[in-house]
């Protein structure tokens, strides 16, 4: 493998460096800064510093404050309570076709979040084998508007899963679904490349074109809530803080 001048310039970059919340700078951050590309070190570090310290609740609050939209899909819940974020790779299929899941794994990019819209919850399109394969391919998580299975394994696997249901039965490897096309789930329009964030509280989806503005608002929400917690620790009540007393 050859070494380029860019490799030499970036060999000492500490991608695990983090900035204190109060010092985070999102001025030039875009959704593309979710990945380090060799040139966006400062943007990448500042964005990671924020994302590691916020919750789905705070993102939903920020999105709603600007656009009066929560960005949530209530029916989809965390299966194994892990926090994850990234760009969405969409897939749509029937519940008896887990073959589309296999094709999506091969088609998605490193760092993507697979998001499946399934026509029914009667059969599972995802389980332990698919999770293992996706994780090994660099995919960050799977989200299913439909059913997963193999919870005995998924609950303890280092791979985030979100789904609207689970069941033991599956379909066949048909591969008849569509990949990376716009989908609509409970009135939420999801396009390939949109931003996904999920944790113990649920999931939030932000359109890619609104990402920068929402992240800036999330930072304000985080700083404000940190200040409220500090006031509570100093003895103030929540009613006093919000002006009810």
Describe this structure in words.
- The chain has eight helices and eleven strands.
- The chain has 245 residues and is of the alpha/beta class.
- Strands 1, 2, 3, 4, 5, 6, 7, 10 and 11 form a nine-stranded mixed β-sheet that branches. A two-stranded antiparallel sheet has the order 8-9.
- Helix 3 crosses helix 7.
- It is globular.
Give a short overview.
The chain has 245 residues and is of the alpha/beta class. The protein has helices at residues 5-10, 41-51, 56-67, 99-107, 128-136, 151-154, 211-233, 238-241, and strands spanning 77-78, 84-93, 113-118, 124-126, 141-148, 161-166, 178-179, 183-185, 188-190, 195-199, 202-206. It is globular.
Class based on secondary structure composition and strand pairing: alpha/beta
Beta content comes to 15-25%
Mean pLDDT metric: 93
Number of strands: 11
Give the helix proportion (percent range): 25-40%
CATH topology of one domain: Glucose Oxidase, domain 1
Quick one: CATH class of one domain?
Answer: Alpha Beta
Oligomeric description of these chains:
single chain
- Any low-confidence stretches, pLDDT <50, length ≥5? none
Number of helices: 8
Q: What is the string of SSEs from the N terminus onward? A: HHHEEHEEHEHEEEEEEHH
Distance between the termini: 67 Å
What would CATH call the homologous superfamily of one domain? Ribonuclease E inhibitor RraA/RraA-like
Label the overall shape: globular
CATH architecture of one domain: 3-Layer(bba) Sandwich
Structural Rg: 20 Å
How would a textbook summarize the main sheet? 9 strands, mixed
């Amino acid at each position: 493998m050859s070494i380029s001048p860019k490799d030499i310039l970036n060999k000492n970059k500490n991608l695990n460096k983090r900035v204190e919340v109060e010092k985070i700078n999102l001025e030039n951050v875009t959704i593309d800064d979710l990945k380090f590309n060799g040139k966006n070190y400062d943007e990448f570090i500042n964005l990671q510093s924020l994302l590691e310290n916020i919750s789905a609740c705070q993102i939903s609050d920020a999105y709603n404050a600007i656009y009066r939209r929560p960005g949530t899909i209530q029916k989809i819940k965390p299966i194994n309570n892990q926090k994850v974020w990234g760009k969405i790779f969409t897939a749509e299929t029937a519940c008896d076709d887990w073959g589309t899941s296999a094709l999506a794994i091969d088609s998605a990019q490193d760092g993507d979040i697979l998001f499946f819209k399934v026509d029914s919850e009667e059969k599972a399109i995802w389980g332990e084998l698919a999770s293992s394969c996706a994780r090994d391919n660099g995919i960050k998580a799977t989200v299913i508007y439909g059913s997963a299975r193999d919870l005995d394994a998924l609950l303890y696997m280092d791979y985030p899963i979100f789904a609207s249901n689970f069941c033991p039965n599956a379909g066949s490897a048909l591969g008849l679904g569509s990949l990376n096309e716009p989908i609509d789930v409970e009135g939420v329009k999801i396009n390939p490349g949109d931003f996904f964030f999920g944790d113990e509280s649920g999931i939030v989806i932000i359109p890619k074109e609104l990402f920068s503005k929402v992240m800036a608002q999330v930072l304000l929400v985080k700083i404000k809530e940190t200040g409220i917690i500090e006031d509570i620790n100093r003895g103030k009540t929540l009613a006093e803080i919000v002006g009810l007393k």
